[in-house]
Amino acid sequence: MIMKKNIYTLAIFIIWPLLLQAQDTPEVGEPVDTISTDVDLFNELDPMDITLTFDLKKYQRNKYEGKYLPVHFLYHINDTLSIEKSIRIKVRGEFRRKHCSFAPFWLNIRKADVANQHLQEVKRMKIVTHCRGADEYADYLLKEYLTYKIYNILSPISFRVRLLRMKYVDTGRKNRVTESWAFMIEPEGMLAERYDALAVKNDQLGMIFMEQETMDLVALFQFMIGNADYSITGRHNVKILGLPGFGSEGYTPVPYDFDYTGLVNAYYAIPGENLGITSVTERHFLGLCRDVSEYQQVINHMENHRDEILDMINSFPYLGEKQKNEMVSYLEGFFILASDPGLIRKELKRTCR
Fold it and tell me: Which has the higher per-residue pLDDT, 16 or 310?
């Protein structure tokens, strides 16, 4: 069944930098909560500085119950201007709910009493967290963030992301402070709104019903980043849009959730038993069988963006050089493979559907 999502504005939520404008000029240090909606938050590159104050122990203890927890939200716009709200968060995700000591969450603003008519339909935002306290988990998060940015380069019909510099104040432990990275993901409804599309809620569709060029791009992108943890049928780590004019065999797949990829290479990521590979760093193609010329058309598109992708990673200031070099080396492995039509044909034809 295809369901039309609620209309989202280009500026959503109550925290976006450069979107906030007080009705009257605030005093220094005075919180504000009136919002200007003329800027697209996902076009901003600088991280947002956010503080959440809540009982972290209770959050961890109740993560299997699926209940919302009240939090105090503070967004630091600059040294003299901030915004404060009472909002709610709820744990999300299946594997990470079990594995993470600090699991990703939904940020719910439905009852935040935002004084802006354009935000009335916005209910919640996906936040990806650092999961655990070890340094490598911060690296995993930043690598996953960059993976979203890679697909943004390859396709505008993609989930945009915004980096967050988070501070958590734990009221259950005498206001102990933890600082870490996180990122937010563009809501599906907002993505659909950008293209006047429908969000398709149908788990029975297969790859054959997807628009061919986009399906091949998704499959080859997943092959490039070493991801076999997705499926069109069941919409596993894929959303589906119905764009205007495409008809019943022109749905558009949009991938997300990349922590199980070879590009991120998280220690906990294990490939599916039926794939015949022993590590997520081994590439495994799950796309449809096509003529070599059809593959090559998409590969050419990816190769045309090679330098932009690698430059984006190399210039990213928040990830260490070692981790950036690992990402670049892994992607270079794909481009070397893709430059030889014989090799790429052999690899793709071996496991295509």
Answer: 310
Shared domain for 175 and 44, answered yes or no, is yes
- DSSP 8-state secondary structure symbol assigned to residue 120: T
Q: Is residue 202 part of a domain?
A: no
pTM of the model: 0.87
pLDDT-derived band at 159 (thresholds 50, 70, 90) equals: very high
Kindly state the helix (H) or strand (E) to which residue 151 belongs, with its residue range.
helix 135-154
Same domain, 164 and 22: yes
- Report pLDDT digits (tens) over 275-305: 989 999 999 999 999 998 999 999 999 999 9
Own/partner contacts of 343-348, CB < 8 Å, gap of 24 or more, are 344/295, 344/299, 345/292, 345/295, 347/223, 347/283, 347/285, 348/223, 348/285, 348/287, 348/295
> Distance between CA atoms of 191 and 210, rounded to whole angstroms?
17
User: Looking at the domain assignment, is residue 140 inside a domain?
Assistant: no
Token pair for 100: 């993470």
